[in-house]
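Researcher: First entry.
Model:
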Amino acid sequence: MPTAAGVEARLPIRSDMDLVWVRQHVRQAAAQLGFGLVDQTKVLTAASELARNTLVHGGGGEVEVSHVTADGVSGLRLTFSDSGPGIPDLDRALSDGYTSGDGLGMG
């Protein structure tokens, strides 16, 4: 199990400009930890999508960026939170083939 080395930042997600700040901060944190370009791109893409979902579907919120270590390897933990309504039926939402919308996403 990873152990937290400390919370680096709590960033608000309330506007499109905040999405830019989240991406910049996550990119910088990943680079400082020595992530290669491919891994930086992967974590940045995930952070960007989660931040946008927090804003659009959760009505805004925040992300906590933490450095973690596990088995001597450093990493990032990104914890997104919002005040949205949540998922009414989590079991159904996690079942194969279920979709809650008409977009191109998986669910």
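Researcher: Second entry.
Model:
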Amino acid sequence: LQAAGDAARPVPSARWVPQAAMCGAAAMVAGLQRFDARFFGLSPAEVLSMDPQQRLVLELGYDALHRSSLRRGALRGREVGVHIAIEHLDWQLLQLVTTSATALQRVSAYAASGEQGHVAAGRLSFALDLQGPSISIN
């Protein structure tokens, strides 16, 4: 967005076969593996089961707060609402496709919340200790 350019790039071959998906380009976010779990009070195991969209909600939600000159401590426990729009459960589908039947028997306890987009607003509210309404709209 800052560059005001076209973010679409050819799909990496490791992601999917462009010819089979009939989609040869996509706008993909790089660097999601650099997420600071400790900063948000998350364990490494929880982050492994977390949809990258939820990581972005946490990072960008905190960034918006910080850029507005508000500080985390100033809002802690206050009636602040979090309303986000989130869609496409690509991560959840990718996990199902790439996980073997034996691995499914060892599904993480964090998968239920980590793979669902509708918990993203609540996750940000919890991480920042915000007490207002939390609504994820798809």
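Model: Note on the second entry: The chain has two domains: 1-30, 36-137.
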